[in-house]
Design brief:
Keywords: Ribonucleoprotein, Ribosomal protein, RNA-binding, rRNA-binding. It comes from Rubroshorea leprosula. One of its GO terms (biological process) is translation. This protein is an alpha+beta fold. Helix content is about 30%, strand content about 20%. The protein is globular and about 75 Å long. It is built from 4 helices and 6 strands; from the N terminus they run E-E-H-E-E-E-H-H-E-H. The strands form 2 sheets. Strands 5-4-3-6 form a 4-stranded mixed sheet, with helices on both faces. The protein has 2 domains: about 50 residues, no CATH class; about 110 residues, 2-Layer Sandwich (Nucleotidyltransferase, domain 5), CATH 3.30.420.100.
Length: about 170
């Protein structure tokens, strides 16, 4: 009596198989085709649902944004990077690959002005927006393209943008 077998494609993580991290947005888990018949007790299978971290998701969003937002000499890109302890803002001309202006919480005047231990707050972000706007206006930059860096337009990112607008930058 012949037994009927079917073929199914599933994502498997096998013991001893190294992850392929070369794929940019791939899951990093090898995809295998397996014939499903009688289960083999010697084969241990683990099905993995999600393999992206928050940082990988943010990096993918930032890549999608960068396809659309480009800094030119007339309208440079205002780029934000947010870490757990600090906040960094740069105005970049992408054609020459030059940073035209920058502000961060690590600069001496900012670190002396605010004494915080758990990371930058919205008030600190507003001050950073004010500093970057004044720095740009001193250098004759009035229009910028806003690059939120893959972060949601909320909280500290929104505070930097609003403060920069209040102090004369046009987005």
């Amino acid at each position: 009596m012949a037994m009927a077998t079917t073929t199914a494609t599933t994502i498997l993580q096998l013991p001893g198989v190294t992850h392929n991290r070369s794929a940019f947005l791939g899951s990093g888990v090898p995809q295998l085709s397996v014939k499903v018949g009688r289960p083999s007790p010697s084969l241990l299978l683990t099905i993995q649902a999600k393999a992206h971290t928050r940082g990988e998701d943010r990096h993918a969003r930032h890549s999608r944004i960068r396809k659309k937002v480009e800094g030119t000499p007339e309208r440079p890109r205002l780029c934000i990077f947010r870490s757990n302890k600090h906040l960094y803002v740069q105005v970049i001309d992408d054609t020459k690959m030059h940073t035209l202006a920058s502000a961060s919480t690590m600069q001496k005047p900012m670190s002396d002005e605010f004494n915080y231990t758990s990371g930058p707050t919205i008030e600190v972000a507003k001050r950073i927006g004010e500093i970057i706007a004044k720095s740009c206006l001193e250098k004759g930059i009035t229009k910028v393209a806003f690059d939120r860096g893959g972060y949601p337009y909320h909280g500290r990112v929104e505070a930097v943008a609003a403060s920069a607008r209040e102090h004369g930058l046009q987005f």
